[in-house]
Write a structure and sequence with these properties.
Blueprint: H1 2-5, E1 7-9, E2 27-36, E3 41-46, E4 51-62, E5 65-75, H2 78-81, H3 83-95, H4 107-118, H5 121-124, E6 133-138, H6 142-145, H7 148-157, E7 165-175, E8 183-190, H8 197-205, E9 211-223, H9 224-236, E10 239-242, E11 245-249, H10 260-275, E12 285-290, E13 293-298, H11 301-312, E14 328-329, E15 334-335, E16 338-339, E17 341-342, E18 347-350, E19 353-356, E20 362-364, H12 372-377, H13 387-402, H14 405-408, H15 415-439, H16 446-470
Parallel strand pairs: 2-10, 14-17
Antiparallel strand pairs: 1-11, 2-3, 2-4, 4-5, 6-13, 6-14, 7-8, 7-9, 10-11, 12-13, 15-16, 18-19, 19-20
EC number: 2.7.7.49
Protein name: Telomerase reverse transcriptase
Organism: Kickxella alabastrina
Length: about 475
């Protein structure tokens, strides 16, 4: 299916189609695996792995026929090569959030938009009345249907992607409130703002508190023209190796690339500006999106229907159309002859969250993890890691993933909702701790286990207190 829609067979250097055993000359490729879905497969390309480059050279004549010798060499992983480009485009997006339209890249951004929407006069007047209308929808096969020409034209013509110079700082960071593991990252600043590594650290310290930064391997200047050219080459020349041979992606963008989500956000941000901006009234409607998963809430049912009707028609030049069976609303609705799915619960599900249609309170959707068996199925264990370190690292990660303003801030959520969010999260932490401990091959000592529990609860308390303090409440 994916070969027919998104991939073409790649010919070898002598004109025939490549096979799984014969590499194509001079082609840089990565490996693809198929992840099962309900009724199809999702192609995921491994771009973290060291890449293979096959080369061909003449090796004389045998029986009057030219023969070739094929050799394979290694190249840096694609995601490693693209890290500077990702850092620069992420910096551009953070400085110009409108470029990605309704996209929210993290929970704090969603918190800000929901809180601002909740404080609108028209919204305040209907809170608690049941007159908030909600809908969610996504794009069918989003990554595999992106129009490459449209995306490349957007990157080349976008005014904020001008030929400006940036300094990319490669640094390491250690958080004083988490697992103390050194993490390597890149941070881009436009020139001449980027005067030194100290200036970069000063900029970073505004975003993350209680972190220690160190220079990893110096800095390097890059130009936007070179970044755009690199990304365009990445889009145009994605080649994967499968048992059927080498395939070239002609439609869509590769799943598995660090650029994929960011490129999708640029792409659908432009779609929103061209086709939805005149429909959505920001004084009574909020449209947000996580990559291709849209959520819209409004005081007007007609506003919701206008958005759904427009997207149900599809947007041919963007190669996208609404995924009808996955569309959900909290009111009776029909588009054409299709009756849309309706939820009867007051808590509207979207991307692992529950948003109350009366109060706009936000909770985590723990229904899929209600049973211990479900928790165990959602936990993977790396048995090659040091057992005690792995348990500590995973538990601290579980805490960090769910504690934040979106779920614990009292200016958006009611007191009972904040308490419920905290209680549910601690229950899930306890269940995951049990699963981690039981599935680790070698048992940790009681002292190690108590140490992990102590650090986990201390981190949870520090993060909760931070949210509480930033909201301006009395200190816990």
């Amino acid at each position: 299916m994916y070969q027919r829609k998104s991939f073409d067979e790649l010919a070898t250097a002598h004109g025939s189609k490549s096979t799984g055993d014969e590499p194509a000359a001079g082609i840089q490729y990565s490996h693809m695996r198929l992840v099962p879905k309900v009724d199809s497969f999702r192609p995921i390309v491994n771009m973290k792995k060291t890449m293979s480059i096959s080369r061909r050279r003449a090796d004389g004549l045998i029986a009057g026929k030219q023969v070739f010798e094929y050799t394979a060499s290694k190249a840096a992983p694609i995601n490693q090569v693209l890290k500077d480009a990702h850092a620069v485009l992420r910096r551009v997006r953070n400085a110009n959030p409108n470029i990605t339209g309704a996209a929210v890249l993290k929970n704090d951004e969603l918190f800000g938009r929901l809180k601002a929407f909740k404080n609108l006069p028209q919204v305040q007047s209907v809170l608690g009345t049941g007159e908030l209308f909600m809908a969610k929808f996504d794009i069918q096969s989003a990554f595999d249907t992106v129009n490459q020409s449209k995306l490349i034209a957007l990157l080349r013509d976008c005014p904020v992607l001008d030929n400006r110079a940036y300094m990319v700082y490669r640094h390491w960071a250690v958080s004083l409130t988490s697992d103390s593991i050194k993490k390597y990252a890149r941070h881009a600043l436009p020139l001449p703002e980027a005067e030194s590594f100290g200036a970069a650290v000063h900029n970073l310290s505004k975003q993350s508190r209680q972190q220690v930064y160190g220079d990893w391997s110096g800095s390097r200047p890059v130009h936007m023209e070179g970044i755009v050219s690199q990304v365009v080459d990445h889009i145009h020349n994605n080649v994967v190796r499968t048992p059927l041979g080498l395939l070239h992606q002609c439609v869509g963008i590769p799943q598995g690339s660090i650029m994929s989500s960011l490129l999708c956000n640029f792409f659908y941000g432009q779609l929103e500006r061209e086709h939805l901006s005149l429909i959505v009234d920001p004084s009574r409607t909020l449209l947000v999106r996580i990559v291709d998963d849209f959520f819209v809430v409004s005081t007007s049912r007609d506003q919701i229907m206008l958005v759904l009707e427009r997207m149900s028609l599809g947007v041919a030049e963007y190669g996208c159309r609404l995924n009808g069976p996955k569309t959900l609303v909290n009111f009776n609705a029909v588009i054409g002859r299709q009756v849309l799915n309706r939820t009867t619960s007051s808590n509207f599900p979207w991307c692992g969250k529950l948003i109350n249609d009366r109060t706009l309170d936000v909770m985590i959707d723990y229904a899929p993890l209600a049973l211990m068996d479900s928790v165990e199925q959602n936990v993977s264990i790396n048995t090659s890691s040091v057992n005690g370190c792995m348990l500590r690292h995973r538990m601290l990660g579980v805490v960090r993933s769910r504690i934040g303003k979106l779920f614990l801030d009292g200016s958006l959520n009611s007191g009972p909702t904040v308490s419920l969010n905290l209680y549910q999260h601690l229950v899930i932490c306890a269940k995951k701790f049990h699963v981690f401990h039981r599935r680790i091959p070698t048992r940790s000592s009681q002292m190690q286990l108590f140490g992990v529990i102590k650090e986990t609860t201390e981190l949870a308390y520090i993060m909760m207190r931070s949210v509480h303090d930033m909201a301006g409440h009395a200190r816990l």
